[in-house]
Design a protein that fits this description.
- Helix content is 29%, strand content 16%.
- It is an alpha/beta fold.
- The protein folds into two domains: 7-361, 3-Layer(aba) Sandwich (Alkaline Phosphatase, subunit A); 367-513, no CATH class.
- The structure holds calcium ion.
């Protein structure tokens, strides 16, 4: 790809017509189909930045055909390193690896939350968890927000969602088609209706499709192909036979998810859509392992992110730009010629995809609350974090609370965790890992170059005092912008002004928006 191509020429290059004539889509005969009513208030031109007088009738249809199809594939709980193309030498992910060879692989993509529904709400709204309103598990987004399905429909797209749709309230997500929707799958979780939907798609409008799988979310399928004894385990694991057995089961689920990625890619190719489709693969957050899901470490927040768009995104490229899944919505909007609303927390990284820019964000933020509702408290470890290229700072809001999760047994537990606890009785390293997982200090600071698994807390080290102070302040500015009063109050107790009284970031919203 010509890396000097301008943003304007980049968008112009994306002008390729796509679909033929519209007929009654036969996917409606596939079985269980759920279609939500489209918001009656939605009209072409309602989206901020779209000129309602720019086109109408046939002209509007022609313009919409100039736009790329967009497919967003979101798996469930896939660790950022757990694919062949991200360096895992054990797991089999031939289709994700193929996607990486044909597109751009991001090495510093981050979710905003290490929990399913909050992270998915961020993706859908372009707003970080406290501004979306959905920072707790299962919480609804704020009623005055708009969502991806609304924005894309008003940009001329036919919008569809297949699979897990773990957001609420559902009327705020008015896809034209919602197929096989579930929070917990009712049928075979290793099958997706997305390939059939793509093959049968025959509308004039470009397609905006979100495909969500349940794998590799637990429960994992029992392994029959991996050799547990030969697997490399992360250094923050306790190496027991039960850990290895479950690791092999997890890899089995990753491979079965990867198979669905391949089936969707094959359907796109067979349909003749491959050259005019922006295909993005990512996941909602890290895998269900200690120090990952429900944790604001890299294991929980850092995600695999790959974008394929032939002729527009350089095949086989690798980007080191830091970005957040909150950036997907404005990127999609800009990719199809829209202007993302200025009030979004997300910022388009289309210029990075085009090869015009190497960087995107200086820092990324994240937050976690947990399950704290009618169903009870679980996976609860309220925390806020800021991550630079080299360091991560974490503010734990309830450091005295023992962290009990699905892993440790607060609901169903895992067989391997019991072996970690047993090993901890006689093994000092295992004891340190178990204690560190369940008991958090008030603050944490990690040097990610020297300590990528975030195992050595630097808070209290005099040589890092200035960095600690700076990161507290920057986090406070962001928390204030988010309306996160509890975190602002706690950071103020630690001396962070959060933009008040001339503190860092007081003069502009740029620091706060640098999320
Ligand atoms: Ca998830």
């Amino acid at each position: 790809m010509n890396r000097t191509v301008s943003r304007r020429s980049f968008l112009k290059k994306s002008a390729v017509s796509v679909f033929g004539f519209s007929v009654l889509p036969s996917y409606l005969a596939l079985g269980k189909v759920e279609t939500l009513e489209v918001n009656p208030q939605s009209r072409r031109g309602d989206v901020v930045g779209i000129d309602p007088h720019a086109a109408s009738g046939d002209e509007a249809v022609n313009r919409s055909q100039d736009k790329p199809n967009i497919i967003l594939f979101i798996s469930d709980d896939h660790g950022w390193q757990d694919s062949g193309c991200y360096g895992d030498g054990d797991v089999h992910t031939p289709n994700i690896d193929r996607l990486a060879k044909e597109g751009m692989r991001f090495m510093h993509g981050f979710a905003a939350s290490p929990l399913c529904s909050p992270s998915r709400s961020v993706i859908a709204t372009g707003m970080m968890p406290h501004r979306s309103g959905a920072h707790k598990f299962g919480a609804p987004i704020k009623r005055d927000l708009r969502t991806m399905s609304q924005y894309m429909k008003e940009l001329g797209y036919h919008t569809a969602h297949v699979g897990k749709l773990h957001v609420s309230p559902l009327q705020k997500f008015p896809y034209d088609d919602v197929i096989d929707r579930y929070a917990i799958p009712r049928g075979n979780k290793y099958e997706s209706k997305a390939p059939a939907f793509i093959r049968e798609y025959d509308r004039k409008e470009p397609l905006f499709l979100v495909v969500c799988t349940h794998p590799p979310h637990t429960p994992w399928k029992k392994n029959t192909t991996y050799d547990p004894a030969t697997l490399d385990l992360p250094p923050n694991f306790v190496d027991t036979p039960e850990t290895r057995s479950d690791r092999a089961n997890y890899y089995t689920d990753v491979t079965l998810m990867d198979k669905i990625v391949g089936e969707v890619l094959d359907a796109v190719k067979e349909k003749g859509m491959a050259d005019n489709t922006l295909f993005v693969y990512t996941t909602d957050q890290g895998a269900q392992w200690p120090f990952a899901k429900w944790c604001v470490y890299d294991g929980g927040l850092r995600v695999p992110l790959i974008a394929r768009w032939p002729g527009k995104v350089e095949a086989g490229s690798v980007s080191d730009a830091m970005l957040c899944l909150v950036d997907l919505l404005p990127t999609f909007m800009e990719a199809c010629g829209g202007n993302p609303p200025a009030e979004l927390d997300g910022r388009s990284f289309l210029a990075v995809l085009a090869g015009d820019k190497k960087t995107h964000r200086e820092v990324v933020f994240g937050s976690h609350t947990g399950n704290d509702g009618a169903a009870g408290i679980a996976n609860y470890c309220p925390a806020r974090t800021i991550r630079t290229r080299t360091h991560r700072y974490i503010l734990n809001l309830q450091p005295g609370t023992q962290f009990d999760t699905h892993i440790t047994g607060c609901v169903d537990g895992t067989s391997y965790w019991k072996t970690w606890v047993e090993r901890a009785k006689t093994d000092s390293k295992a004891r340190e890992i178990v204690l560190r997982y369940q008991h958090r200090p008030a603050e944490e600071l990690y040097d990610l170059d020297a300590d990528p698994w975030e195992m050595r807390n630097l808070v209290g080290k005099p040589e890092h005092a200035e960095l600690l102070k700076d990161l507290r302040e920057r986090l406070a500015v962001w928390c204030r912008q988010q309306g996160d009063d509890l975190a602002v109050e706690r950071l103020a107790e630690l001396g962070a002004k959060g933009g008040r009284e001339g503190g860092a970031g007081a003069a502009s919203g740029s620091a706060a928006r640098s999320c």
